[in-house]
Design goal:
The chain is α/β, with parallel strands linked by helices. Helix content is 31%, strand content 26%. It has 6 helices and 10 strands. Bound molecules: adenosine-5'-triphosphate (ATP) and magnesium ion.
């Protein structure tokens, strides 16, 4: 399985009179890990949501491999088959156990129960939560919940992982752990990963950073990562 290629061209997003993203263009190669940085309100979440087809640009085009994401009339299969999303506020369902939360995307994808359980347990192992599958999210720490959210985003084996502040509100050790998880995923599956963060240390872990200021691209490096799949 290879990661997805992402091409964002002249994308803008307005809400009423407010221009949230302005003429943003960049490309991401399969298997790259990109840090999307910028101060609060600079448009990081908006950008990830546009790429993941949870929102639509006012102008411009977004391609993920051969899918014209900006023009999708029905994004369900694209989201289910190609994208894993770690939401900024992790969005675990409080009434479902950790394991059922991880299985959720697989229910939508009609993966059979036994296979769902196997994948969920393997992912929980991978994120360091062996034995916690029957707990409810309320019994977990913030960092543990973030790890469940990452496991859930990976359950469908996405070619593109969009992670919105996956280390937000975590101490440096937990955040290091999430980070190791993401780089491990890229190594094994070649997954393309975009991580939004206002953590200034984050770009060190990424192949390169894309910085937003007031909805504009402040810098976009064009070098390819060494060793990306
Ligand atoms: N639905 C909306 N309607 C109007 N304005 C919006 C809407 N969604 C986002 N915005 C505005 O767009 C701007 C960018 O928001 P966004 O959530 O993308 O920023 P962010 O960089 O992710 O910030 P943070 O670091 O706080 O998560 C903000 O000023 C926000 O208030
Ligand atoms: Mg945000």
């Amino acid at each position: 399985m290879a990661g997805a290629r992402v091409i964002v061209e002249r994308v803008s997003r307005a809400h009423g009179d407010a221009l949230i993203l302005r003429d943003v263009s960049f490309a991401v190669e399969p298997g790259e890990i990109i840090a999307v940085t910028g101060p609060s309100g600079s448009g990081k979440t908006t950008l990830l949501q546009l790429i993941g087809s949870l929102d639509r640009p006012t102008a411009g085009t977004i391609r993920v491999d051969d899918v014209a994401v900006h023009a999708l009339t029905n994004a369900t299969s694209f989201r289910r088959d190609t994208v894993g999303f770690v939401f900024q506020l992790h969005h675990l369902l409080p009434a479902l156990t950790v394991q059922r939360n991880v299985e959720l995307p697989l229910v939508a994808a009609r993966v059979r129960r036994h296979e769902r359980e196997q994948r969920a347990l393997a992912l929980l192992d991978e994120v360091g939560l062996t034995g916690r599958q029957h707990d409810l999210p309320a019994a977990l720490s913030g960092g543990e919940r973030q790890r469940v959210a990452v496991a859930r985003a990976l359950a469908g084996w996405p070619r593109l992982l969009l992670a919105d502040e996956p280390t937000g509100a975590l101490d440096s050790r937990s955040s290091q752990r999430i980070w190791e998880l993401l780089t491990g995923v890229r190594e094994r599956y070649g997954t393309t990963i975009l991580v939004a963060s206002h953590d200034p240390a984050l770009p060190q872990h990424a192949d390169r950073g894309i910085a937003l200021i007031d909805g504009r691209l402040a810098s976009a490096a064009d070098r390819s990562p060494e060793g990306a799949a």
